Amino acid sequence: MSEEKKTEKASRRDFLFKGAAVGGGLAAAAAAIVPAAEAAAPAQVARPQTATEKFRALLQRPGLTVVPEAHTVFAARLAELNGFDCVYTGGNMISAMHLGFDDYGIVTISELIQYGGHIARGVDIPCVVDSDQLGETALTVHRHTKEYQRAGIAALHVEDTRNPKHQGAGVSSLMPPEEMALRIQAAKEAKYDPNFTIIARSDAMSLFEKKGDLTELIRRGKMYAQAGADAFFPTGIKADQINAITEGTGLPVVSLNVPIEPQRNTKVKICLHAVQVFQPVMKLYEDMILGLKANGEFPKPPRLPQEKVDAVMRTAKYQELTNRWNKVRGT
What is the reported pTM? Predict the structure, then answer.
């Protein structure tokens, strides 16, 4: 309630109290102070968890959470229907599937938010979305972090690479950890949802001058933790390094494409599996169109059961709304 509303309500009650006291004493005043609607207020109904709260719960619960990639809303809903608690939308997938680029930092932050937001809002489970470096400076990091929250995204990861990125040592490079720390600080200061999660990604294992330097990776992780990161996402690690990274940084660890079984007895929290699906999907598409070209019709590979397609499309709900709408219109 705004301060104006509070003042207006207090003034009205004061007026009623004085009038009741003059006309018949304190009992009438008390009745005036507590309206019947307030005296019989209904019990509070528990609200559903937000996506950000759900993701925080995944970080805090025992064990690890396996998170598959989802490059479309359809894919994300399939993951949800099959029991996954979270999905991941990476810049690689957005660049390739929606824009036709390699993941070299060509995609814009607005495009990451646009496509990632569609997916995040299309499911009831949390969605982690790539944010590359979150923009050129700490200023753009601050603004874009707010936009990620408004888009319904549960968590973002921001990385310590420079553009053009992901082209290997000698071509791509790391930013100084002090610059990355300032990016994290700016993102933290832009949080208006306390449960929104900022994941610090580091490519130090592949791009630092001494490749595979676990000491440098942990040093960076500590700096990112001190800057306000909520989790640490080191790429290029092995399962037997996870506990040292967790203990060294003090942050929950997010892994990428590390086999699940070796991680089960580690302290890893989130296991992302990405850049594995879209190429087989597109190979199927190529096989289909080549079959059409050669034979005059599409091949008939295995398909999803219609009931699963209907569940993904939420067909029953929209059919029910159609029936109600047609009744109102008399059709």
Answer: 0.85
